[in-house]
Amino acid sequence: MSSPDPLVTRQRTRVRHDIQALRAIAVLLVVINHLWPERLPGGYVGVDVFFVISGFLITAHLLGEIRRSDRISLSQFYARRARRLLPAALLVGVVTLAATVIWLPAERWARIAREIFASAAYVENWILTASSVNYSDRGQAATPAQHYWSLSVEEQFYLLWPLTLLVLGWLLARGVSGRIASRNGALLGSIAVLAAASLLFSIWQTGANPAAAYFNTFGRVWEFMVGALLAVCAPAVAAWCARRPALALRGIAQLVGYGAILGAALWFTEATPFPGWWALLPTLGTALVIVAGPELPRWSPARLGSWRPVQYLGGISYSLYLWHWPLIVIAPFVLARDLGTADRVALLAISILLAALTKRFIEDPGRTKLFAGARPRRTLLATLASVAVVGLVAGGTVWAAGAAEARDQARLDAAQGSGCFGAEALDPERDCADPFGPAMFPAGGESEAPWSAVAPECALQPDERQIFAEGKPSYVECDFGAGRAGGDASVPGTSDPYRVWLVGDSHAEHWKAAVNEIGRANEWRVAYTMQGGCPSVATPLVRAFGGETDQAKRDSCASWITEVSERIVADAPDLVLVSNFASAEEIDDGSGRTQPEQLAAAMGETLVAWANAGAQVVVIRDVPTAGTALGPDCVSQRGTQQGVQRGAASGACVAPEAEVLPPDPQIAAIELLGDPRITSVDLSERFCRDGQCSGVIGTLPVFYDTDHVSASYARSLAPALSRELGAALDRELHDPSTR
Predict the structure, then answer these.
(1) H helices then E strands: how many in the chain?
(2) Is 471 left (phi over 0), alpha (psi -120 to 50) or beta?
(3) C-alpha–C-alpha distance, residues 505 and 584, integer Å
(4) CA-CA distance, 444 to 422, in Å (whole number)?
(5) Element (H, E) at 232
(6) Backbone angles phi, psi at 443, to 5 degrees
(7) Both ends of the chain: CA-CA distance in Å?
(8) For residue 527, what is the enclosing H or E element?
(9) Burial of 134 (0-12, 13-18, 19+ CB in 10 A)
């Protein structure tokens, strides 16, 4: 049996102060990044520091158990993990759910409740992965449970790594005989292969789908494996470190390691492709700090890490990580305003206080006293029961959210038809005293999502008629004249339906609710196809929403619009409606011309082909970008009737038109084209008045998220859109508000 490893633990009763200092730095990086993202834009690398520490400590513990008994007691290991992690995590989750019901609008309860349960079951990272690959969820507000993603990744590592070590040990025992050094070398090589495979996967996925790569366990395994490699090498490194001349090198290594971590926190931003290659900087920096060991030369500034406040912060880092994010998300709703500097400092102090109390009364007793002396099976059964209870509470919250949404829908139905309801409140011919007044209900309900604006007359088409967008079916047909008698009212004297296509990205999709109403009033046959983040031209998309697009996205967009164009030309519809988030999308044909000029050339190839097939093409000018000024957070905090009753200022969710309504490059492109068959409509006056745009109009929340119009507000736009389309088409359309 080997001697105790001084790199892993100097004494069984002592915690390595360098690792506690790393924990303190890691949690502070994350918390400061969340409170002041502009000051520490790369603070999210604190999570990577935690992953390396976990890989090192857990692997060292498991290898020690193998050396002592030649086995791993899985039941004991899992029971210890449950006692260590679950009590605090479940407490914060339940308190967060209660605070959600008390202070957050009911429209958000269901999603948060599902994420709280996913966090308790340690699968939150996969929930976020699924959301991140769904373009429609891009503008969703953050939930107070999202930070559990990293804990989910860690728990999945804890679940699988002991089993993996046992399998590796079994294989190596049969494939490698003889000296312990040979077996350690083989284990080291095996772990290195796992690390390399995970790193390569992370690099690939970060390029192909960076949002999903961030939460994917398989793309994070290599960070744990870096720590595992240190644990395997610990005896040899400890022997080398025992030599006094190495002390200065260890001091330099630790300083370089801390510098790499802090440099990443300062230099990285949200635009940094992460994790991928860039995650090597904080990960290897953490490895350098750990491998240098706790003993340092007197001159090293890293000795400050042994300062008692730093060590204490490292001790409460787990609970501090748990508490800080729910407080940040929920506090603006409690205060009914955006957080100021004093608020953020207060939240930091409250987070530390709650973490200290949780460590003292929940974490420590849970680890040392909970089910003390009980068989591991009892602990594990209690764990499953606790998760089940959280699931029941979350399920009840989802049910309550549905009931609240039904009440809001009843109020909405009762209010429709009012002269100053929704977009009609900005009708120049109406005298509505307070069109920007408070909303009747908060924004962000799932029924208000643009993609939820389905109609019974619409059906997803079978595969042989489908148009696939990024592998998903996107083609829907709606027959609003089914069962008509005596022909189509919109085409007098004929029995042929008036055929319409609505094409574009998700900013075309949020017009579906209005187009459905117009189509129903005029007995149209409507076809929909949209692909998120893709402009309606074949020219390569190079940037979207501030980030570079990869080749796979460019190819997908080009393939989709090419098939759409061919289908429209073959179908020869009467009308094609187009809308895109063009101000956030950049194409490049290699000419160096301006975006309107490039769009005009691209449209000359695409939209003109549709017009040549007999269609009138109408581009709908893009809407204001809600962001935080007009979006659901503002409306929910202080733009509702309930908020006004609590003392929040009415009409607070407004912003200057010049800031939130940028020029639409598509409209400029149409003007350059000068083709009378390709025109545009502009409904900006139904979002803004006298230079001000609002997040609430006619008691309706205007936006579902940061840039998509809510389904109810889009529906209220139907009469105005109908009139604008009638003028553009030089034909009279039936008013959908009269049906």
Answers:
(1) 27, 17
(2) left
(3) 11
(4) 16
(5) helix 221-241
(6) -90, 165
(7) 86
(8) strand 524-530
(9) middle
CB 681 within 8 A of CB 721: yes
Q: How far apart are CA 579 and CA 505, in angstroms?
A: 7
Please list, residue by residue across 293-313, b when 16 or more beta carbons sit within 10 angstroms of its beta carbon and e when fewer do.
bbebeeebebbebeeeebbeb
Structure letter (DSSP) for residue 144? T
Residue in 86, 429, 49 with CA at minimum distance from that of residue 261: 49
Q: Quick one: CA dihedral 538, 543, 545, 549, positive or negative?
A: positive
- Name beta bridge partners: 573: none
**Number of CB atoms found within 10 A of residue 102's CB:** 10
Express each pLDDT in 384-424 by its tens digit: 999 999 999 999 999 998 888 888 778 777 777 667 889 99
Q: Residue 560 in contact with residue 531, Cβ under 8 Å? A: yes
* Cα separations in angstroms, 566 against 41, 129, 468, 572, 638: 45, 34, 14, 10, 48
Structure tokens at 161: 């790594």
> Nearest 5°: CA angle at 496, between 490 and 499?
70
Instruction: Categorize the per-residue pLDDT at 135 as very low, low, confident or very high, splitting at 50, 70 and 90.
Output: very low
353's torsion region: left (phi>0), alpha (psi -120 to 50) or beta?
Answer: alpha
∠ at Cα 222 (198, 315), nearest 5°? 150
**Residue whose pair of structure tokens reads 């977009």 in the numeric block:** 423
- What DSSP designation does 363 have? I
Total count of residues recorded for the chain: 739
CA dist list (Å): 270 to 149, 211, 287, 327, 570 = 17, 11, 24, 22, 43
Q: Which tokens is 130 given?
A: 């699924």
**Measured between alpha carbons, how far is residue 59 from residues 52, 161, 164, 347, 484 in Å?**
11, 8, 11, 35, 71
CA distance 366 to 86: 8
Predicted confidence (pLDDT) at residue 362 exceeds the cutoff of 70:
yes
Peptide bond into 309 cis (omega under 30): no
Distance CA 90, CA 415 (A): 42
What is the rounded CA–CA span in Å between residue 328 and residue 169? 45
The strand pair at 541-544 and 547-548 is best described as antiparallel
Question: pLDDT tens, 678-688?
Answer: 999 999 999 99
What CA–CA distance (Å, rounded) separates 508 from 136? Answer: 12
Nearest-angstrom CA–CA distance, 433 and 420: 9
Query: Which of 50-54, 59-63, 233-237, 414-418 holds the top average pLDDT?
Result: 50-54
Q: Which range, 31-40, 328-337, 587-596, has the best average confidence (pLDDT)?
A: 31-40
- Mean pLDDT on 436-448: 80
Helix axes 317-335, 308-315, angle to 10 degrees: 80
Q: Is 90 exceeded by the pLDDT of residue 481?
A: no
d(CA 686, CA 607) in angstroms, rounded, equals: 27
Mean pLDDT of 332-336: 87
The first and second tokens of residue 249, run together, are 């090198």
What is the rounded CA–CA span in Å between residue 679 and residue 514?
Answer: 19
* Token code pair at residue 203: 């690099």
Tens of pLDDT along 606-664? Answer: 898 999 999 999 999 999 998 888 988 888 877 665 554 444 444 478 999 999 999 88
Burial of 465 (0-12, 13-18, 19+ CB in 10 A): exposed
Please tell me which of 375-384, 449-458, 475-484, 518-527 the model is most confident about, judged by mean pLDDT: 518-527
Query: Is pLDDT of 264 > 90?
Result: yes
- pLDDT the model gives residue 738: 61
Residue 711 burial (10 A CB sphere; 0-12, 13-18, 19+): buried
